[in-house]
Structures are given as structure tokens and as C-alpha cells.
UniProtKB/TrEMBL annotation:
Pfam families according to UniProt: Aldo_ket_red
All residue ranges annotated as the NADP-dependent oxidoreductase domain in the record: 9-259
Example GO molecular function: oxidoreductase activity
Gene3D superfamilies: NADP-dependent oxidoreductase domain
Classification via InterPro entries: AKR, NAD(P)_OxRdtase_dom_sf, NADP_OxRdtase_dom
Record-annotated site: Lowers pKa of active site Tyr: 73
Binding of substrate, residues: 106
Lineage: Bacteria, Bacillati, Bacillota, Bacilli, Lactobacillales
Active site: 47 (proton donor)
Descriptive protein name: Aldo/keto reductase
Length: 275
């Protein structure tokens, strides 16, 4: 069973670092988050072909590394012991650090899970990563992973999770809880330009009652049970500030019932949604 539980709010970074004109604001947003209690940053070698990691490297300069929890991911076609090490070394260089806290297989590919795990264990043994995990794994993938030697060491699985994509609530989240695997929910606003979730009348009512925006309600909703780490991406201090403020209020049972009527819980297994 894992002893370190990942919950609450982290910082997403897909799309950051790709436009030089936006860099200053993006760094300011990340630093605002770190200065106001956030510590988890999620990135990947894929994001902007390393540009997101470079931006984060710049943003975290001068911060106490021990207080940060850095997550990165490697491509499925790098999921062998040799290529994982190469990918990791490049990520560490871009991030300007000597280790990652968590290293994730970005999604399932064609390499054998046993080889992928063997490589990750070696990186762990060398102190280059503290934990390893997976992303975009469904319940059957997790079950299969646990049949592979070392598979039960998986620290986290990162999947799409927001108020309009609740499929993982059917069985995956409970399975992970039972097996001590942290659940990281990505794209709490369903990605895009942050307007890909229908702003229903009930979302507006609940937002108005709290004096916040519907987006803040969506974010508070993903954190409502205290068992998920949610990682919104914000390119401005303004958005980061709003996201941080969502940690301060709690949705009531009545409000959750209202929201549930617009965005119902899954009643049957559906294929894992991905972005
Ligand atoms: N493991 C995976 O396969 C996977 C897949 C997708 C995402 N992820 C991770 O999850 C993170 C988040 O997902 P995402 O980037 O796809 O999308 P997201 O966080 O669901 O949405 C980002 C959008 O929401 C906007 N936004 C942020 N805060 C807001 C606020 N308070 N009010 C209104 N709009 C707001 C952002 O605008 P601004 O940019 O203008 O602030 C951006 O347009 C990623 O960055 C990445 O780290 C992982």
C-alpha cells in the first residue's frame, strides 16, 4: 500500500511553454501557484516536445526542490529500460532537476509491461525517480498490470476526470482506492479552451450562491471527496488564483444532488474516455 497520498490541487502544463509571447505570464501563473501552497506539477516529454518541461524548469528555479512534487511522462514507444532512461535524462535536464517524484507511462503501447516495469525499477533504484505509475489505464489494464511482477508498486494512474466525464467512478476509482494506487484526474475543465463543458442552469445557480464562476464549481466538484488529485492548466495568474480559491469552499449535499441531475453518475461500465 502506498504511504504517500496525492489529493487536492496540482498544476497542469499541457500547452505551456509553446508560445514565447506567453512565457512570462505562464511562469508567473506557476509561481503564483507555488507561492500559494501548491506543490505538484504535471508535465510530459510530449508537451510541446519538451517546451513545457523547459518552462517548468525556469519557473521552479530558486524554489526548494524538496517541497515540490514533479510528475513527468514518457511516450509508450519509449517504454523499454534503455529508452525510458534516455527519456528521463532528457526530461531531468529540461526541468533542471536530478530526480522526478513520479514518472508515468503516458498511455499503453506495444512494449511488454514487464519490460517497462523493469526499466522503471532500475531508475528508482538509481534514485532518479521516487515513484512510477501509468496514465490512461482502465480497470482491466490496472488488473493486468497487477499480475505482472512489480506491477503492484504502481503509485498512481492518471485519467480523464471531470464533471462531464465520470466514467472512472463506475469501478476504476474504487479499485485504485482498494489497491493503494493514487488517482490523478486530468482535464478538470475537459481541456480545450476551458469551455468544453456545458454550463447548465444548475452550474450557474450553484456558482452564484457561492459568488464564484461555474469553472470554480467544476473544479471544487472534482475535489469534493478528497480522494483525487486534480491538475488544471492555467496560463494566467488570474485563472490560477481562481483555481486556488476553490480549495476554500465545500459543495453541500443539496448542491451535489443538483449538479448530479445535470451530470449523472455512471450506471454502467463505459470505455475509458481519453483526451
Ligand atoms: N495523462 C494524460 O494523458 C493527460 C491528458 C490531458 C491532460 N493532462 C494533464 O492535465 C492537465 C489539465 O488538462 P488540460 O490542459 O487538457 O485542460 P483543463 O485543465 O481541463 O483546461 C484548461 C483550459 O481551462 C482554462 N482555465 C483554467 N483555469 C480556468 C478558470 N479558473 N476559469 C476558466 N477557465 C480556466 C485554461 O485557460 P488558460 O490556459 O487561458 O488559463 C485552458 O483553456 C494538462 O495540462 C496536463 O498536465 C494529462
Amino acid at each position: 500500500m502506498n504511504f504517500e497520498k496525492l489529493t487536492g490541487l496540482g498544476i497542469g502544463s499541457w500547452g505551456l511553454g509553446e508560445d514565447p509571447k506567453k512565457k512570462k505570464d505562464e511562469i508567473a501563473a506557476i509561481r503564483y501557484g507555488l507561492d500559494h501552497g501548491l506543490s505538484v506539477i504535471d508535465t510530459a516529454e510530449m508537451y510541446g516536445d519538451g517546451q513545457s518541461e523547459e518552462l517548468i524548469g525556469e519557473a521552479i528555479k530558486g524554489y526548494d526542490r524538496e517541497k515540490l512534487f514533479l510528475i513527468s511522462k514518457f511516450y509508450p514507444y519509449h517504454a523499454t529500460p534503455k529508452l525510458e532512461r534516455q527519456s528521463l535524462e532528457a526530461s531531468l535536464k529540461r526541468l533542471g532537476t536530478d530526480h522526478l517524484d513520479l514518472y508515468l507511462l503516458h498511455w499503453r503501447g506495444s512494449h511488454r509491461l514487464s519490460d517497462t516495469i523493469r526499466g522503471l525499477q532500475a531508475l528508482q533504484k538509481d534514485g532518479l525517480i521516487r515513484y512510477w505509475g501509468v496514465s490512461n489505464f482502465d480497470t482491466a489494464d490496472m488488473q493486468e498490470l497487477f499480475t505482472v511482477p512489480g506491477g503492484e508498486e504502481c503509485f498512481a494512474n492518471e485519467d480523464l476526470y471531470n464533471i462531464s466525464e465520470r466514467g472512472t467512478e463506475f469501478d476504476l476509482q474504487a479499485w485504485q482506492e482498494e489497491h493503494g494506487v493514487n488517482f490523478i484526474g486530468y482535464s478538470p475543465f475537459n481541456s480545450g479552451k476551458g469551455n468544453t463543458i456545458r454550463i447548465t442552469r444548475n452550474l450557474k445557480i450553484v456558482a452564484r450562491d457561492h459568488g464564484v464562476t461555474p469553472h470554480q464549481i467544476m473544479l471544487a466538484w472534482t475535489m469534493r471527496n478528497g480522494n483525487v488529485l486534480t491538475i488544471p492548466k492555467a496560463s494566467s495568474v488570474e485563472h490560477m488564483k481562481e483555481n486556488i480559491a476553490t480549495q476554500k469552499f465545500k459543495l453541500t449535499d443539496d448542491e451535489l444532488r443538483l449538479l448530479n441531475s445535470d451530470f449523472p453518475m455512471p450506471t454502467e461500465k463505459t470505455p475509458l474516455a481519453v483526451i
